[in-house]
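Support reply, case 0932

Customer input (verbatim):
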Amino acid sequence: MRSSGAGHDGLVPDGPEEASSVAVHCLTTGEVRGKRGERGVRRYLPGAWRDETLPVNCFLVEHPEGLCLFDAGQTARAAQRGYLPAWHPFLRLARFELSQADEAGAQMRALGHDPGRLRWVVLSHLHTDHVGGIGDFAATEPIVARAEWERATGLRGRLRGYVPQHWPRGLRPRLVELDGGALGPFPGSQPLTADGRLVLVALPGHTPGHVGLLVRGPGRSFLLAADLAHTSAELASTRPDVAEWCEREGALPLLAHDRGAAGPLRTLQQDLGGAIA
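Our regenerated output:
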C-alpha cells in the first residue's frame, strides 16, 4: 500500500498498477455530544451534557470506476437551535458541533474533488448524522436499502426519529435489496462496482436496513460499518462474528463514531513511509 499524499487521512491499497488503486479517506464532519447517564428521565431535561464528544465520520472512496461517498455526514445547520425537532425525545439526547468547513462537501473540495462528480453516495442508514450533508450531493442518486427507506419516510419515520423534512426536496434514492447472497457474517450482499472491489453488505442491528460497504484490496481491505458499533474494540464484544471475520480476512473496520478511524489509516501510512497530516 502507498500513501494517498500529504495532508490526507487516506490510504491506497496495493494494486497491480496505479490506475486500478483504491483510496479511502476518513472525513470527520464535526462532533456529537451526548447526555450524561445511560437511562432515566433526567437525560431528557435541559443541560447535563457529557464533557467528551464523539466524531461524526463518513468515508470517501476513490475507485477507478468513480468516486464513492459512504454516508453524507452531518450538516452545519444541525448545530443551530431549532433544526432538530425538540418534541422528539431521541433527538434531545445529542448536540452536534460543527461549522460549514466541517461538512463532507467542503472536505471533498479541500481534497481536490468536486462533490458534483460523485458516482455513488451510499447511505448506511438515514439517521440525521449520516444523511445530514446530502444536500451537497444532489447531483448523485443516493443508494439506500429499501427496508431503511420504508422505515424512515412519512409520519412513521418522523416518529422514529428520522428527519425527512430536511432531506432535499424530491429526493429519490436507488433502493437496493442486497439479494446477492450471504457473504461471511453478512446475511445479504450486492456488488457496487463491476470489478467487485466495492460490495454492499447487510449489517442489520442499529436499524433493520443498516448497510455497510466492503472495500476490497489485495493487501488490505476495509469494512465501512457506520453504526454497527462505536469503536473497533466494542465491535469485538457486540458483533464478535463480524470482528472475527474482519481479522481473518484482513479487513480493517472503520466506524462512524470511532475517533480512531482515521488513526489506523495514519498508522498504516507511517508503516509504509507515507506522508501524513
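We compared this against your earlier run and they match. Two observations from our side: Residues 2-271 form a domain with the Metallo-beta-lactamase; Chain A fold (CATH 3.60.15.10). The first strand starts at residue 2 and ends at 3. Please reopen the case if you see a mismatch on your end.
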